[in-house]
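Need a sequence for this fold. Nothing fancy.
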């Protein structure tokens, strides 16, 4: 039986949750169009849809919120957030936004022009859609092994630097506005990037005059894996590793709803003051004044305190090892999951779980819906539906990975909750042949996995 040390916190407040009957859950998924995104939260027993904004804040974060300065301009809460981001992440120019995709919007409006090629180590839906809406085309330059869910590689998020060099040679550096660095890589199951690989990518981008932009949402988790897996870093603190990662980049987009434990918030960090001027101008248009960027002062206080807590070694250890506990329960039972287990989620390999369904039958979407009916557990599809349609052909994109992501919120669920999740998956595994595929009933043009509706094929 897998084990992990006790959490470095104790419970001070509880939120009641309720389990519907299986018949009620079946009715709820039908009404939601077999899309777990459209379920009411009150109908969900254990919610692993995302770890974004669903974390439990600490007593110190709640206390910090009482200090929120709600001034429209020049908020002292922004000054505190700015100083904290500079200290722990190292970027000199800090532009607040209401969440991470808002920072992506600002960045891509500034940098991406029609015809641009946008390389990254596997796509993320919101990042790619911002690139495409501004005329860019995403190019995947991750190592090939990242697309193999069973491969056991310590840093499956690494760039294939030969692919990156070839792309630059083929299209020219002037056609590449920036290289997107996901660390860890969400769509690969939370797989980390090594410090040596980041350094190699930095060398390439600097030589060609291309910006390197970090998705810092879960960079603390990436720092943990570097500390645990990469030679030479075992005796370095998480805070120091995080800063070393950021020091190799030109900027970062940040969703503070992940590592920083906050319920809302984000920022764009840059080093170039000229780019920062452009970013602040667009923030005023789309988010709010450049000293609040769509966040209340109290939220900026919570984010600043959350950053401090996030880099505590015992905190990130407990977080990653809790995820590992669920993964090992499934491993021991032979359930196909992405290997090695990531830092924020366990990903069911839906293609292997439901081999009787082809990709057009949307196995990951079907599995996510079936898991909700089975145990009231909400995960999210990360496969064909999330990949969307090719804007040129209109055909479904078919990513190699067809996954159901179970993202575990920080400081929310106990070991008993994870045992329930594992038991629900194991019960479903035993009758997996009975799960039928799904078809689209309706779908929006962008980020369709949030609002699309489906119906069973049989």
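Here you go.
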């Amino acid at each position: 039986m897998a084990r992990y040390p006790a959490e470095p916190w104790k419970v001070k407040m509880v939120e009641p949750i309720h389990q519907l009957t299986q018949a009620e859950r079946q009715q709820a998924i039908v009404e939601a169009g077999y899309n777990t995104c459209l379920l009411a939260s009150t109908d969900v027993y254990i919610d692993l849809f995302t770890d974004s904004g669903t974390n439990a804040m600490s007593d110190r974060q709640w206390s910090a919120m009482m200090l929120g300065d709600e001034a429209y301009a020049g908020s002292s809460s922004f000054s505190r957030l700015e100083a904290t981001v500079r200290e722990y992440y190292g970027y000199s120019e800090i532009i607040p936004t209401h969440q991470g995709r808002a920072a992506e919007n600002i960045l891509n409006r500034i940098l991406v022009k029609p015809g641009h090629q946008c390389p990254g180590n596997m796509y993320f839906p919101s990042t790619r859609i911002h690139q495409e809406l501004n005329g860019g085309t995403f190019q995947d330059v991750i190592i090939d092994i990242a697309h193999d869910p069973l491969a056991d590689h310590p840093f499956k998020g690494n760039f294939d630097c030969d692919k990156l060099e070839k792309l630059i040679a083929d299209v020219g550096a002037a056609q590449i506005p920036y290289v997107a660095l996901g660390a860890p890589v969400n769509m690969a199951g939370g797989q980390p990037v090594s410090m040596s690989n980041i350094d190699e990518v930095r060398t390439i981008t600097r030589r060609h005059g291309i910006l390197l932009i970090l998705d810092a949402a879960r960079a603390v988790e990436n720092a943990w894996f570097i500390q645990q897996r990469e030679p030479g870093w075992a005796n370095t603190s998480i805070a120091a590793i995080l800063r070393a990662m950021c020091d190799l980049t030109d900027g970062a987009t940040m969703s503070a709803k992940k590592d920083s434990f906050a319920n809302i918030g984000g920022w764009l960090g840059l080093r170039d003051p000229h780019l920062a001027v452009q970013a602040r101008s667009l923030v005023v248009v789309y988010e709010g004044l450049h000293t609040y960027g769509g966040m209340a002062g109290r939220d900026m206080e919570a984010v600043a305190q959350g950053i401090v807590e996030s880099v505590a070694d015992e905190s990130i250890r407990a977080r990653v090892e809790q995820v590992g506990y669920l993964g090992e329960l499934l491993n021991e039972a032979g359930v196909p999951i992405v290997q090695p287990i990531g830092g924020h989620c366990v990903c069911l390999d839906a293609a292997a779980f439901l081999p009787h369904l082809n990709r057009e039958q949307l196995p990951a979407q079907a599995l996510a819906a079936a898991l909700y009916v089975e145990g009231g557990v909400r995960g999210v599809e990360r496969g064909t539906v999330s990949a969307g349609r090719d804007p040129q052909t209109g055909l479904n994109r078919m990513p190699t990975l067809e996954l159901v992501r179970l993202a575990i919120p920080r400081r929310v669920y106990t070991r008993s909750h994870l045992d329930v999740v594992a038991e629900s998956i194991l019960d479903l595994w035993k009758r997996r042949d009975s799960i039928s595929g799904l078809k689209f009933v309706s779908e929006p043009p962008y980020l369709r996995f949030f609002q699309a509706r489906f119906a069973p094929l049989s």
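For context: The first strand starts at residue 46 and ends at 47.
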